Amino acid sequence: MPHATAAALAGGLRERGRFVALLDLDPQGCLSLLSPGVEQISPQSLPKALRGQAGMDYVLIDTPPALGDAVRIAVQAADGV
Questions:
Q1: How far apart are CA 31 and CA 23, in angstroms?
Q2: CA torsion, points 8, 28, 45, 12, in degrees to nearest 10?
Q3: pLDDT class for 4, splitting at 50, 70, 90?
Q4: Are the C-beta atoms of residues 64 and 27 closer than 8 Å to each other?
């Protein structure tokens, strides 16, 4: 369950005092359904969504479990994978 991994990572970082945002790029939207305040976004809106997270220490992006445009766009936007 990748969405559970993203939520757990965010929780661990927050426990350490980090500011963390979660973005749900998976069309199934499981992360946004399970985690209040998480926004489901389209790959095309990722750049705008990232600009809105400028004050965060980390922005974790939940992606679909298969290679495709959403994963490619998320990897291109990432500082680390």
A1: 8
A2: 0
A3: confident
A4: yes
Tally of domains within the chain = 1
Range of the domain at 66: 2-77
Please give the Cα distance from 70 to 67 (Å, whole number): 8
Q: How far is 15 from 75, CA to CA, in rounded Å?
A: 26
In the chain, what are the helix, strand and coil shares in percent, each to the nearest 5? 45, 15, 40
**What pLDDT, in 10s, does the model give residues 37-81?**
888 999 999 999 999 998 999 999 999 888 899 999 999 988 887
Residue 70: CATH number of its domain:
3.40.50.300
For residues 49 and 41, is the Cβ–Cβ distance under 8 A? Answer: yes
